[in-house]
């Protein structure tokens, strides 16, 4: 049975907004080093790490409740407007959801920022 709905939240960032955008645009392959028990790997399947074209396809391997799962996503980064858009293309999570679309707006401040998250499934 597939679930559907919408989630919205505003979160404070503990890092400069530019660093947050850079992490998802060009440094996602470093995320497993931060949380190796949960996220095992991030591979680039299409596009370039840090490409100014702003679009790439990434493949994630991670664990949930001790079970290893996968997730393939399209990531689109609009640096001018500080927006990141994630679209789930395939993976274990689609056994629970028909589709997943996440949209992050990063609001700038001198040192910190806010993250507005909108997710739909």
Automatic annotation (TrEMBL):
It comes from the Eukaryota. Signal peptide: none annotated. SUPFAM superfamilies: Bet v1-like (SSF55961). InterPro entries: Bet_v_I/MLP (IPR000916), MLP-like (IPR052006), START-like_dom_sf (IPR023393). One of its GO terms (biological process) is defense response. It holds the Pfam family Bet_v_1. This is Bet v I/Major latex protein domain-containing protein. Belongs to the MLP family. Residues 2-117 form the Bet v I/Major latex protein domain.
